Amino acid sequence: MASRLCLLLLILCGPNVAQCGLRVYNVYARGIRPDPGNNNGDGYVRMSCGPVSTTTHVVFNTPNPNWHEELHYYGASPGNYLELRVYDKDVMFDDLLGICATNIQRGTRKQYCSLSKGGYLYFTYTLS
Ligand SMILES: [Ca+2]
Ligand SMILES: [Ca+2]
């Protein structure tokens, strides 16, 4: 079943599968504020669109993390809901720092949004 799906994707997308569907990349944040104290954040991002989600690694001890990780969803369509949730990693319970969401459109778009706990999240997506 899985291999048939892969074959179908190859037929639909051509040999360059990376060009097909949704790609979310160049994800970074500036000025995240995880705690009442002045310690730096340990940020990570959970990205989701449709049935696909991925969680980045944690970038420790900085208010300005760059994640260098991507979300790929080959079955994405215009209008699908894309959500990025920024968290601060902690020992017991991670803090949700803010949510960035958009309904995706075709093409390449650079987006940013202000996070509810402070700071900004930036990302770029391409839907082909
Ligand atoms: Ca925290
Ligand atoms: Ca922390």
Automatic annotation (TrEMBL):
GO cellular component: membrane
Protein name as catalogued: C2 domain-containing protein
Domain C2 residues, every copy: 1-117
Signal peptide residues on this chain, from the entry's feature table: 1-18
UniProt source species: Oreochromis niloticus
SMART domains attached to this UniProt entry: C2
Top-level taxon of origin: Eukaryota
A Pfam family: C2
GO biological process entries: defense response to virus; immunological synapse formation; T cell mediated cytotoxicity
Keyword Membrane among UniProt keywords: no
Molecular function GO labels: wide pore channel activity
Keywords (A to Z) from UniProt: Signal
